[in-house]
Design brief:
The protein is built from five helices and 13 strands. By secondary structure, the protein is of the alpha/beta class. Helix 2 packs across helix 5.
Length: 263
């Protein structure tokens, strides 16, 4: 199996940023992961995983997040750069902006959310869920490309596939959430459980329900996503370029003192 240390998880079509030369398919104990594209960015081998499958046919609540993350783990991936399409709850954040969240609230309902369903009982600390080192490089890369970027934000993840109601958005706003999406959980926690560095850059496609137009459409979300794609790809490429050769964060020790050991 090819060994790769950096992976990008994103939407269909973003594999083009790699100029990929190889496609592989990994089986895992949790099922078959989507095809993984391999290519080079500034001389570094990078894996790209289309979260929803090559044809974007898997809705967010049906993504096999455990298979996706475990497939990257099998390849030796140590750092994951993710992208998420989100709606803005914080009125200061406008469509077309980028947000590099520092924290997350989970409102998903039915997703398999851990690798640790049996002994030993494992409680992974998520006080700093998003890798600070990768976040820092993402932020600086976005600023270097002149993007409108917010360097902090709380991302709330909902179940989907429906969009949220205006009442739900009001609740999330009162809880301190800044943006809302459907794909960050349990992806971020699963990466943490395997001691992988994980951070995401969110691209804002719309104002959340009740804050903008009376009716949200998938067509409009896709339109804004396509307009944002070029700058997002530049940010990802620059982040890969400037990541230190070896992680200097503590993500690789996430399981230290996390397990109950009965003597």
């Amino acid at each position: 199996m090819r060994k790769v240390e950096i992976a990008i998880i994103g939407g269909t079509g973003q594999e083009k940023l790699l100029g990929y030369s190889e496609q592989i398919r990994n089986g895992t104990p949790y099922g078959l992961a989507p095809p993984i594209f391999l290519g080079e960015i500034y001389g570094k081998t990078v894996a790209f995983m289309p979260r929803h499958g090559v044809s974007h046919g898997v809705p967010p609540h049906k993504v096999n997040y455990r298979a996706n993350i475990y497939a990257l783990h099998q390849m030796g991936v140590k750092r994951v750069l993710a992208t998420n399409a989100v709606g803005a709850i914080n009125r200061k954040i406008k469509p077309g902006s980028l947000v590099v969240p520092h924290d997350l609230v989970d409102f998903t309902k039915s997703r398999a959310s851990t690798f640790y369903d049996s002994e030993p009982v494992t409680h992974v600390d998520v006080s700093q869920l998003f890798c600070p080192e990768v976040r820092s490089v993402l932020i600086e890369s976005a600023r270097g490309k002149g993007a409108r970027v917010f360097d902090r934000g709380v991302l709330v993840c909902t179940e989907g596939p429906r969009l949220e109601t205006p009442a739900e958005i009001r609740v999330f706003g009162r809880l301190g959430c800044d943006v809302v999406g459907m794909t960050a959980m349990p992806e971020a926690v699963l990466a943490r459980e395997l001691e992988m560095c994980y951070a995401t850059v969110c691209f804002v496609t719309n104002l959340a329900a009740g804050l903008g137009v009376k009716r949200l459409s998938a067509e409009e979300l896709v339109k804004v996503a396509r307009e944002t794609a070029p700058i997002l790809q530049q940010v990802l490429r620059e982040t890969v370029k400037h990541l230190p050769s070896k992680p200097r964060c503590s993500c690789g020790r996430a399981l230290e003192k996390a397990r109950f050991e009965v003597e």
